[in-house]
Design goal:
Elements: H1 14-17, H2 26-38, H3 50-81
């Protein structure tokens, strides 16, 4: 949604941005990330195209449904043995 409104969105490694000294808060984290970005110290990670993201999501959903189906079949088989 942000990209569709003209914002540049980067996916960055959390380990690179979590070194804020002192008390932590969302505001301080935001300011720290903004400062790192201003100095060019953050680089975006690879993010596949939207169509690939949709396909991966469908593939994960399919895998989850297959695992769930297998559990249910095993459950029915166990109940029929009793």
């Amino acid at each position: 949604m942000l990209e569709s409104r003209g914002f540049t969105v980067l996916l960055v490694n959390a380990r690179h941005v979590k070194n804020v000294s002192g008390r932590k808060s969302d505001v301080l984290d935001c300011q720290w990330i903004q400062q790192l970005m201003t100095y060019g110290l953050l680089s975006g990670a690879f993010r596949p195209a939207d169509q690939v993201c949709v396909l991966r999501s469908l593939w994960r959903q399919r895998g989850m449904l297959l695992r769930s189906q297998a559990r249910e079949v095993q459950h029915m088989q166990r109940r029929s043995r009793r």
